[in-house]
Each structure stands twice: as structure tokens, then as C-alpha cells.
């Protein structure tokens, strides 16, 4: 397990929003976190990535309790791309985290080039981030995190604020992160974002109500999450003619 938590409880004031959650994430595993609004997805991911730390329970990164040092290995991409841009140019933005880490300049330049190439933005170095589309801004946010060499990357509804084109752009980059063997955890309401995850963790009122294989989730889920198209199509292919006619007749 690259990341693990035990008996996490978290309150906002008197309200319990994470209720005794324990889980482990294997290195390289692509995981989706789902749940209704307010079920605790963002709170749990912020705890697991060391952004929120006034919780009860324990979080371990590679068997060591999460601390100031090892939390650098865990990146977090927020929902709104606007809120995570700090640089005046794109290269400055990507450099920001590395500067804080004290990465030598030569290495920094290499890392900027590499990270921008991964998100398909080579040649954008001198551009003003304000001139970017939503999808590009989110890709820039990913590049900035990637340049810091995280092992685990949490993404909190990274495509929610985007139009279909931006969503596809960002999803293509997410797939690349998975190919790079990063451990990616994505919270999403969009089945499109979840089509390739191996595992789904579903939360309800701060509790895990499902943790397992994606296809089993869609067989049993009681949340308001539609099935990905390929599962729907497969089901249709398995129907006999009569079933299909009945199904279509249901659609008025
Ligand atoms: N800063 C805060 N102060 C007080 N309560 C909060 C705060 N942030 C979140 N909450 C509450 O904690 C609960 C869990 O919120 P959280 O944002 O983790 O849910 P979520 O599953 O990410 O929801 P969404 O799908 O809307 O993003 C909600 O009831 C929310 O109102
Ligand atoms: Mg959220």
C-alpha cells in the first residue's frame, strides 16, 4: 500500500463529516471516489493528502505517518482551475512548487519542459495563464503538480468546471498520469471520468458504502451516478430482441 488511513474521523464544528474511514491504496492503482454532494469526498481526499490535518485517526504514506516531508509526495488538483494558478507566465507557474522545494535551476528547467510536454503544452512557457482555456488551465495545474514528482495525485472533480472539449483534454492527461504509473485518485460525478478506474470507493454521509471493482459498483449502486456508456452498451448487446424492443418501448 502506498497510502493508507485508519479510523479517520473528521468534524466541522459539531458535525461529523468523515465517519471512521479506513482504506488502503495500492501503488499505481487508479481509483474513483464517488458520492452525493456533501458526502465527504473532498474532505477525505484533503485528509489523505495532508491538506487537512486536524483529524482523528492515522494516515500513512509508504508505512510512515504523514508528515511535512512525505506529504510532498502527494499532489492535489482542485476543482476550479482558476484557484491554483500563481504564476504570471506558464513556466513561472510550473516552477513555483519546485522553487519552494529548492530544486536547482537546471533541473527545474528540465522538469518544466517535461511536465508541459506530458500535458501537451510545450511551447506555452511564456504565455500568460489568463489567456488559457479552462481545459488548458486545468492541464497547467496538473503540470505544476507533476513537476514536483508526486507519487500519488488526488483530483477533486477536475473536469466539473469544464466544457466537453476541456473535459476530454483533461481526461487524456489523467490517462497519461496513470500510464506514468502515478497513483491517481479522482473524485467525480461524471461517469466519463470514471470509465477506466479499477476501483470505486463510494461515500455516503462520511462513510464508505462501497469499495471494490467498478463494474460491481454499477450493478449495485444506489447513488445518482450513471453507468459509463460501454457498460450500458454491453448490457444492450446481451439483451435478446424482445428485451431490446421492450426497453426501447419504455422510452417515450
Ligand atoms: N469549510 C467547511 N466548513 C464547514 N462545513 C464544511 C466545510 N467544508 C465542507 N463542509 C461540510 O462537510 C460535508 C462534506 O463536504 P465535502 O466538501 O467533503 O463533500 P463532497 O462529497 O466533496 O461534496 P461535493 O460533491 O459537493 O463536492 C458537507 O456537509 C459540507 O457542507
Ligand atoms: Mg467536493
Task: Write a concise synopsis of the structure shown.
With 252 residues, the protein is α/β, with parallel strands linked by helices. Helices cover 36% and strands 24% of the residues.
Structure description:
It is found in: Cell membrane. GO terms for molecular function: ATP binding; ATP hydrolysis activity; ATPase-coupled transmembrane transporter activity. Keywords: ATP-binding, Cell membrane, Membrane, Nucleotide-binding, Translocase, Transport. InterPro entries: AAA+_ATPase, ABC_transporter-like_ATP-bd, ABC_transporter-like_CS, ABC_transpr_CbiO/EcfA_su, ECF_ABC_transporter_ATP-bd, P-loop_NTPase. The protein has helices spanning 41-48, 90-101, 105-118, 134-146, 164-179, 214-220, 229-238, 241-250; strands spanning 3-12, 15-25, 31-35, 56-61, 64-65, 74-77, 152-156, 183-187, 199-204, 207-213. The protein is α/β, with parallel strands linked by helices and 252 residues long. The longest helix has 16 residues, at 164-179. A six-stranded mixed sheet has the order 6-7-8-3-9-10, with helices on both faces. It has one domain: P-loop containing nucleotide triphosphate hydrolases (Rossmann fold, 3-Layer(aba) Sandwich). The protein has eight helices and ten strands. Adenosine-5'-triphosphate (ATP) binds next to α1.
Amino acid at each position: 500500500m502506498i497510502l493508507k488511513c485508519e479510523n479517520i474521523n473528521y468534524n466541522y464544528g459539531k458535525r461529523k463529516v468523515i465517519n471512521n474511514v479506513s482504506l488502503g491504496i495500492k501503488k499505481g492503482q487508479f481509483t474513483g471516489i464517488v458520492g452525493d454532494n456533501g458526502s465527504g469526498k473532498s474532505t477525505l481526499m484533503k485528509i489523505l493528502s495532508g491538506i487537512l490535518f486536524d483529524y482523528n485517526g492515522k494516515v500513512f504514506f509508504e508505512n510512515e505517518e504523514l508528515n511535512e516531508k512525505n506529504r510532498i509526495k502527494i499532489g492535489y488538483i482542485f476543482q476550479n482551475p482558476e484557484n491554483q494558478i500563481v504564476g504570471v507566465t506558464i513556466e513561472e507557474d510550473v516552477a513555483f512548487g519546485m522553487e519552494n522545494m529548492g530544486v536547482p535551476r537546471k533541473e527545474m528547467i528540465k522538469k518544466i519542459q517535461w511536465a508541459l510536454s506530458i500535458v501537451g503544452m510545450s511551447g506555452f512557457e511564456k504565455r500568460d495563464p489568463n489567456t488559457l482555456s479552462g481545459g488548458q488551465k486545468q492541464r497547467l495545474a496538473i503540470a505544476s503538480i507533476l513537476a514536483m514528482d508526486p507519487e500519488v495525485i488526488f483530483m477533486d472533480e477536475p473536469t466539473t468546471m469544464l466544457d466537453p472539449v476541456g473535459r476530454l483534454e483533461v481526461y487524456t492527461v489523467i490517462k497519461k498520469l496513470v500510464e506514468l504509473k502515478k497513483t491517481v485518485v479522482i473524485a467525480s460525478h461524471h461517469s466519463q471520468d470514471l470509465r477506466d478506474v479499477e476501483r470505486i470507493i463510494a461515500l455516503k454521509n462520511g462513510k464508505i458504502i462501497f469499495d471494490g471493482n467498478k463494474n460491481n459498483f454499477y450493478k449495485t449502486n444506489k447513488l445518482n451516478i450513471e453507468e459509463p456508456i460501454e457498460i450500458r452498451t454491453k448490457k444492450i448487446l446481451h439483451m435478446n430482441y424482445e428485451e431490446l424492443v421492450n426497453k426501447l418501448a419504455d422510452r417515450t
